[in-house]
Amino acid sequence: MTRGRSGGSGGKEVFRVVEELRSRIAGGVYPTDSLLPPQRRLADEFSVSRDTIQRALEQLKAEGWIDPRQGSGTRVVQRVLREQQVQAYTAKAAVEGRVSLREYFDEAFSEPDVLLDVYSLTSESLDTQVKGQIERIRSGLTAPQSIRIRMLLPAESLDLPYPVAVDDPDGPLTARLKGRLLDISHLHSASIRTELRQLQAEGLVESTEMEIRHVALTPAFKLYLINGAQALHGPYEVIERPIVLDDEEVRALDVLGLGAKLTHYAKDPGHPDSRGSVFLASWQTWFDSVWEKLAR
């Protein structure tokens, strides 16, 4: 344990700041090697105390996102490792290699009608990508007419095998970690809904819709089905990492979310038996069946 304040609204404010700053770093708002705004400016922006900002930065440091140095500011680090990477075998110009998830969302949101089917542990990564596209829409770089998102998340009553406190796998620390996971998903789901509604209210997009259903399945992989033409799929890797709960650092078994590596597949028009076409059709059928028959 460190400083005095813990739990209550103080802990919730730290959580809110951490989630927003993490999302900005992963989304490229604060690029690698750039400096975060001064603590006083962040405190004013989030309407919190300097102590709350300091505690949030401590958690981001423990997770490996930043490197605070006395007298020289707080520098963003390791974004290349944290950024959602995609192994592409069907990239533009038939060039195989690694690209970022952002590039596929840029392409998807350049279409007049955007349709995303997503299966994931939380809505955190999706929120990061949607916020990036909202910035492009507001800047006039893209102008979709409709955005529809269907998202499958694990049932909230499901006893997931992660996250788990290494030294307290069946005790209150693990319960708090799982409560934190739900808070993360609630926060980012609400953020996506609000942002999409705001776009429609301002007349920037004619129609927006986001529907979330829950299913009693433990996510072992992440899946994006994009505009019926592309699929991104990858397993969750279980890792041990520190997670800060209020003022306490907990060693936990968790899974990579924003840093998980995905593989890209694309539908090959006119070739229904190609690898990409078969993969996309199979997983779209899987998603639709779970959505209609199991999810609530």
Short description:
By secondary structure, the chain is α+β, with helices and mostly antiparallel strands.
Can you walk through the features of this model?
The protein is an alpha+beta fold and 296 residues long. The protein folds into 2 domains: 70 residues, Orthogonal Bundle (Arc Repressor Mutant, subunit A); 194 residues, 2-Layer Sandwich (Endonuclease, Chain A). Helix content is 39%, strand content 26%. It contains 8 helices and 13 strands. The strands form 3 sheets. It has an 8-stranded mixed sheet with strand order 4-3-13-10-9-5-6-8, with helices on both faces. β11 and β12 form a beta hairpin. α1 crosses α3, α2 crosses α3 and α6 packs parallel to α7. It is globular and about 60 Å long. The termini are far apart.
Structural class: alpha+beta
| Count of DSSP-assigned helices | 8
Largest sheet: 8 strands, mixed
Label the overall shape: globular
CATH architecture of the largest domain: 2-Layer Sandwich
| CATH classification class of the largest domain | Alpha Beta
Instruction: Return residue spans where pLDDT drops below 50 for at least 5 consecutive residues.
Output: 1-8, 91-96
Q: Please give the share of residues in helix.
A: 25-40%
Distance between the termini: 40 Å
Percent range for β-strand residues: 25-35%
Q: Give the spatial strand order of the biggest sheet.
A: 4-3-13-10-9-5-6-8
